[in-house]
């Protein structure tokens, strides 16, 4: 089903429709398995409003006999969670996607109570990278455990090498979305500068569900 334009909300509708095609997350919400996961007491969330309204919008879009649905409740929940989206102005679709995923994650975070604090480890030798990556993910999962993390999150590997002494430091940082450069008509990369040659970044996520989410 389509989504009704509520006044300059093309960016909103396009983002929601794209996210709805992330099959693992949609199956989880359509099965109503999320109901027992709503973390209304999480101060970083929306009190469960974003998760409930997104699930309701998804269910209406999949099961309604109407040709379109009006996502007013979801738009209101997102605007209440992030005031940048109040009103009917155009906004950046990627910023909305980040906000929506963050709201869904925090509303459905299975971690209750005070989250543990960790010092993030670094690898100084190649042989340490696998164990450091595993420890970073363990730390992240101890603070963030939701169906969004299950299907969207991975680790970004970044390496910095000293030009003077040759020493290398590798870090792993959790991510849920990545911004990719697009080639212009001449074939060169446009957008943000990727940095100098001494910096390396690599997606090391091995979540099989990412293939389903990209369909």
Keywords:
215 residues, alpha+beta, 3-stranded antiparallel β-sheet, two-stranded parallel ribbon, 5 strands, disordered C terminus
The helix count comes to 8
Q: What is the general shape?
A: globular
Low-confidence stretches are 192-201, 205-215
- Give the amount of beta strand, in percent: 5-15%
Query: Taking all residues together, what is the mean pLDDT?
Result: 86
Structural class: alpha+beta
Task: Output the helix-strand order.
Answer: EHHHEHHHHEEEH
Give a quick account of the main beta sheet: strands, pairing sense, barrel closure. Answer: 3 strands, antiparallel
How would you explain this protein's 3D organization?
The protein has 215 residues and is an alpha+beta fold. The protein has helices at residues 10-20, 23-30, 49-63, 72-81, 93-107, 129-143, 147-152, 209-213; strands at residues 2-3, 68-69, 154-161, 168-175, 199-203. 26% of the residues are buried. A hairpin with a 6-residue loop joins β3 and β4. α3 packs across α5 (93-107). It has a three-stranded antiparallel β-sheet with strand order 4-3-5. Strands 1-2 form a two-stranded parallel ribbon. Mean pLDDT is 86; it is low at 192-201 and 205-215. 40% of the residues lie in helices and 12% in strands.
């Amino acid at each position: 089903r389509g989504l009704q334009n509520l006044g300059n909300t093309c960016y909103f509708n396009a983002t929601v429709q794209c996210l709805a095609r992330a099959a693992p997350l949609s199956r989880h919400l359509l099965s109503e398995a999320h109901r027992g996961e709503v973390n209304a007491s999480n101060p970083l969330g929306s009190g469960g409003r974003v998760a409930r309204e997104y699930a309701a919008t998804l269910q209406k879009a999949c099961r309604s006999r109407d040709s379109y649905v009006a996502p007013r409740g979801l738009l209101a929940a997102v605007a209440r969670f992030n005031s940048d989206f109040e009103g009917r102005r155009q906004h950046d679709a990627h910023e909305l996607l980040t906000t929506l995923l963050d709201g869904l994650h925090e509303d459905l975070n299975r971690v209750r109570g005070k989250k543990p604090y960790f010092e993030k480890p670094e690898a100084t030798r190649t042989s340490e990278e696998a164990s450091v990556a595993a420890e970073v993910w363990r730390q992240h999962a101890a603070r963030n455990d939701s169906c969004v993390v299950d299907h969207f999150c991975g680790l970004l590997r970044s390496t910095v090498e000293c030009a003077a002494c040759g020493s290398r430091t590798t870090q792993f940082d959790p991510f849920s979305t990545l911004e990719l450069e697009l080639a212009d008509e001449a074939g060169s990369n446009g957008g943000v500068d990727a940095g100098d040659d001494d910096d390396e970044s690599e997606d090391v996520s091995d979540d099989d569900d990412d293939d389903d989410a990209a369909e």
